[in-house]
Amino acid sequence: MGEAGLLDAARRDAMIRMSKFRNVIVHDYVRVDPTIVVQILREHLEDLTRFKVAALKWI
């Protein structure tokens, strides 16, 4: 989506970080710090909303 121009570089990088964090949650959940999860939800939930809007433009 970044290459297609639907996400700017900052959003693309945020989504890459989010997907890496998702992999930790799914595959190595013992290491997950609940405080970090809450912080992400409080401070970066808007990133997911922006991704959704961009994804809907793509289809």
UniProtKB/TrEMBL annotation:
Care to name a GO molecular-function term for this sequence? hydrolase activity
Family stated for the protein in its record: Belongs to the HepT RNase toxin family.
Q: What is this protein called?
A: DUF86 domain-containing protein
Q: Which UniProt keywords apply?
A: Hydrolase, Nuclease, Toxin-antitoxin system
Q: Which domain of life is it from?
A: Bacteria
The reply on keyword Plastid is no
Provide the Gene Ontology terms for cellular component: toxin-antitoxin complex
Q: Name one Pfam family in it.
A: HepT-like
